[in-house]
Amino acid sequence: MSFLLYFLLLILVPLWAQMKVKSTYSKYSRVPVSTGITGAQSARRILDENGLPHVKVVETRGFLSDHYNPMTKTVHLSPNNYHGHSIAAAAVAAHEVGHAIQDKEGYAFLRFRHALVPVANIGSNLSWIFIMIGLFTSMTGAFMIGIILMAAAVLFQLVTLPVEFNASSRAMDQVVSSGIIRNTEEREARKVLNAAAMTYVAAAAVAVLELARLIFIFTGMQRSEE
């Protein structure tokens, strides 16, 4: 029963976070920002005001596929946010510009996350191979390698949290100081950003729980060998 509850938790927590961000975004994407500017215009204004005229703002495909690419110095906004005149569009656009400002300032956690990308990719792709080998063959060495590789991926998830929260904090400061939203709209914009942040919190929580479960299994394997 405990394992069933555990796996339900692994499924339901991320699902709840995704539903939360989609419902909140959907609600405030229908609320027009009082200044009437689009997400693309919001991004462009904040970039220019922060000495980043070389960073491009482009439209990208998909739903909530918004992101900042530090390699090309480009802010990518999904169609609804690129063309939208809503509070949600302004908040999301400002959040992605927040990452561009982090990049410019050499924000420590962002640099650390970039350095972790190749290690995290290897860890997420190979960890379960070693874990399954360890489980089926009772080779604790292979299982330990799998745990170490997974730990690298979990570390990436944890480092992502301060990066995302800091970008949201910067976004709120920028949309207000740039006059993109009025003071009365701050609460709505913050709700959009907080809902989006919960997806990262949920992903990190699930990753930590899974790593803890594997460590528990590993200690059990070691005891059985004694």
Descriptive keywords:
mainly alpha; 3-stranded mixed sheet; transmembrane; 7 helices; transmembrane helix; Zn_peptidase_2
Strand order of the largest sheet: 1-3-2
Helix content: over 70%
Mean pLDDT: 91
Tell how many strands the DSSP assignment holds. Answer: 3
- Rg over alpha carbons: 21 Å
Give the N-to-C terminal Cα separation: 28 Å
Largest sheet: 3 strands, mixed
* Tally of distinct domains: 1
Residue stretches low in confidence (pLDDT < 50, at least 5 long) are none
Structural class: mainly alpha
Share of residues in strands: under 5%
Order of helices and strands: HHEEEHHHHH
Number of helices: 7
Shape: elongated
Keywords: Membrane, Transmembrane, Transmembrane helix
InterPro entries: Zn_peptidase_2
Protein name: Metal-dependent peptidase
Organism: Bacillus badius
Architecture overview:
With 226 residues, the protein is mostly helical. The chain has one domain. 75% of the residues lie in helices and 5% in strands. The protein has a 3-stranded mixed β-sheet. A hairpin with a 4-residue loop joins strand 2 and strand 3 (74-77). Helix 1 runs antiparallel to helix 7 (186-225), helix 2 packs parallel to helix 4 and helix 6 packs antiparallel against helix 7 (186-225). The longest helix is centred in the last third of the chain and has 40 residues, at 186-225. It is elongated.
